[in-house]
Amino acid sequence: xxxxxxxxxxxxxxxxxxxxxxxxxxxxxxxxxxxxxxxxxxxxxxxxxxxxxxxxxxxxxxxxxxxxxxxxxxxxxxxxxxxxxxxxxxxxxxxxxxxxxxxxxxxxxxxxxxxxxxxxxxxxxxxxxxxxxxxxxxxxxxxxxxxxxxxxxxxxxxxxxxxxxxxxxxxxxxxxxxxxxxxxxxxxxxxxxxxxxxxxxxxxxxxxxxxxxxxxxxxxxxxxxxxxxxxxxxxxxxxxxxxxxxxxxxxxxxxxxxxxxxxxxxxxxxxxxxxxxxxxxxxxxxxxxxxxxxxxxxxxxxxxxxxxxxxxxxxxxxxxxxxxxxxxxxxxxxxxxxxxxxxxxxxxxxxxxxxxxxxxxxxxxxxxxxxxxxxxxxxxxxxxxxxxxxxxxxxxxxxxxxxxxxxxxxxxxxxxxxxxxxxxxxxxxxxxxxxxxxxxxxxxxxxxxxxxxxxxxxxxxxxxxxxxxxxxxxxxxxxxxxxxxxxxxxxxxxxxxxxxxxxxxxxxxxxxxxxxxxxxxxxxxxxxxxxxxxxxxxxxxxxxxxxxxxxxxxxxxxxxxxxxxxxxxxxxxxxxxxxxxxxxxxxxx
Length: 589
Prior knowledge:
By secondary structure, the chain is α/β, with parallel strands linked by helices. The protein has 22 helices and 19 strands. Strands 3-2-4-5-7-6 form a six-stranded parallel β-sheet, sandwiched between helices. It has a six-stranded parallel β-sheet with strand order 15-14-16-17-19-18, sandwiched between helices.
């Protein structure tokens, strides 16, 4: 087996191997050649080649999202590293352990006009779990070091090199352990001097790599006082954001679902299911906004206790409601962070959700109340009205999502792009066997395709990506790789621009709006299918939507993309009309 002749490159590879980082996503370059050599020559690692660094980072994020383990991304120096930033920010706010390994120029070549060189140290400082700025070897390319930076060498080459390796060893421990223990992205910056391509047959460094430190067991504080508040309240709301599939024990969900004083609001990304849960938040809140008695109804909905867990919330309407009609108590459960999303956070339970409920359920009991019954009756009526409305509308984003949601095969992995796709998905029920994911950490449209492809790599079941036209076009380079499975499926809802902006109340239908907000276009995605060897299906009517769906999921030798063309000028009217239509449920309720 070959090894890079640069000690630092060997050290980085050895640490990754010792800490069990198997998946390495590499973008081509010259400065990172020592790392490429080390990773690709060792059969322990599973290496992927993704040319576009932005796509590579989201691809790695998708793998880490599914495996719940660190995945490394490796790039050359300069602007290549900056292309990782969108995925790093997403990983930071979604608690996904990306290990970013960047090659760099020697420190004495920074800011002197050398090519492909930027200030890489601490470049992600505000969105990273740990930054390890490693030091350049002096035992490699010693003649260059002595010529350009003799001040780097102390009393001797050997003594200085020993200090450098000790420092780098310690920094690598801190960085990788942060990713493993806290689940946060980390950055490891590795400066290399030329020559970069030389190899040796034997390892030159022998670091003492310790086992990963056990995560400190967080003591769950005495919850007696909190249980007393819970038991004394007849109006309690539970709100769940992004949540991994099967992350919460069903017995705890049943406790919440069967308490008449509790309503549980879930989102599609929560991956929680129960007949008593409220799975379409906006279908409850939006009709209230349209009622003359909205203040009275919102006061009926307002809870004494708000209990939240999971990641970020999609619904703007529930955020607006909870910020205006604040609960007396807002408690959040999470091992790391608690966002004060509603400006009413009163306590953070720093523990695992299951561990919390295991203790909490022993101290709480059902409370007699009409809270659940009142709102559940409204929910059931709204569900009937939704069916009635869907039956009367023409092809549109809403009709397309209704049909698509009802026809996704069981046990699929569903990846949702941001903007319209994830918001429409909130309005419809999904089969409980479908696992749902979306990059909600930063809620950007960038990287959805790349993430979905990465997430599909180790999935036992097929993956479906539902995306809008702008999100798809924005990340079209995500298809530029050799790792797309034949059972991978993409549905592109093409409304010829950012149709979600038409819903804004201040929207003006003008040429400036179409150009700078909606970004109207006439692109079809058919040519991308030719370029990347996808089968292609198309629909521009309700009949063709049903016909294409009937064959879309059938086994194929190539992945399949299904483009659904919807009317740009009607989608917002149909969606807003839906909320008007179901609001009749609340009249004289």
